Amino acid sequence: MARSLLRAGLSVRVWNRTRAKAEALADDGAGVHADAGEAVRGADVVLTALNDGPSVSAALDAAAPGLRPGQLWLQTSTVGPDATIELAARATELGVLYCDAPVLGTRGPAEEGKLTVFVSGPPEARERLTPVLDAIGQRTVWVSHEPGGASRLKLVANTWVINLVGAVAECLGLAEGLQVDPRLFLDAIAGGPLDTAYLHTKSAALLTGDLKPSFAVSTALKDTRLILEAARQAGVRLDLTEASAERFARAEAAGHGAEDMVATYFAGRTEQ
């Protein structure tokens, strides 16, 4: 995201809890700061992109001394509706305009500035956010004026992705078990109504053994748990998603947590 902002000609200052990760952006033109408060001081838009709610909260604590009333906070992490409301309340205390803005897309779209950004935020933020949103994404979906709407939509979208990748993993696992060439399966449905580009992308990762994470198993497990908690509160039963959570947990326990989430494939093996 930072590189996309820089390519768009925007001035970017960065801070990361692991300084080396921020320093990697210096050659691209970003100003690197050791102090979060200094990184956000005077900025028109403050953007956070972290793994979970506690990480975002900790980053806010670190940045608070440099925040000023009226600043826009574009919070792009997937933290779930409950944490979103808590963060929005803290933003109000600090006088910051909070924009709930989780993104849809993995490593590739993020690097190319082609994310889809779901946004719930005050109408007066739209014009000021446009240069940032245009830089990091190919599409912005304005969901609502109040925080939480975008986060709820993100959980719905992630439910589709999480269960889809589980279907890919199970199909290829069954093909292996039945001694069917998985490429024959992929060819059989290619171009038809059941075909998806996602199927071929994730299948290729498994078949080549290139499991560099676009979206890691551990992160997928975190998001799946957020989905299940939101569903529980809404009185909705998600049998497929519960099964996906179990598979991700088994894959993580087997040492695949840092690999791409299609490594849930390895959770499908049973003792013979």
Automatic annotation (TrEMBL):
<dbReference type="InterPro" id="IPR036291">
    <property type="entry name" value="NAD(P)-bd_dom_sf"/>
</dbReference>
<keyword id="KW-0520">NAD</keyword>
<keyword id="KW-0560">Oxidoreductase</keyword>
<dbReference type="InterPro" id="IPR015815">
    <property type="entry name" value="HIBADH-related"/>
</dbReference>
<dbReference type="InterPro" id="IPR029154">
    <property type="entry name" value="HIBADH-like_NADP-bd"/>
</dbReference>
<dbReference type="InterPro" id="IPR008927">
    <property type="entry name" value="6-PGluconate_DH-like_C_sf"/>
</dbReference>
<dbReference type="InterPro" id="IPR013328">
    <property type="entry name" value="6PGD_dom2"/>
</dbReference>
<dbReference type="InterPro" id="IPR006115">
    <property type="entry name" value="6PGDH_NADP-bd"/>
</dbReference>
<dbReference type="Pfam" id="PF14833">
    <property type="entry name" value="NAD_binding_11"/>
</dbReference>
<dbReference type="InterPro" id="IPR051265">
    <property type="entry name" value="HIBADH-related_NP60_sf"/>
</dbReference>
<feature type="domain" description="6-phosphogluconate dehydrogenase NADP-binding">
    <location>
        <begin position="1"/>
        <end position="142"/>
    </location>
</feature>
<comment type="similarity">
    <text>Belongs to the HIBADH-related family.</text>
</comment>
<dbReference type="Pfam" id="PF03446">
    <property type="entry name" value="NAD_binding_2"/>
</dbReference>
<protein>
    <submittedName>
        <fullName>Dehydrogenase</fullName>
    </submittedName>
</protein>
<feature type="domain" description="3-hydroxyisobutyrate dehydrogenase-like NAD-binding">
    <location>
        <begin position="149"/>
        <end position="264"/>
    </location>
</feature>
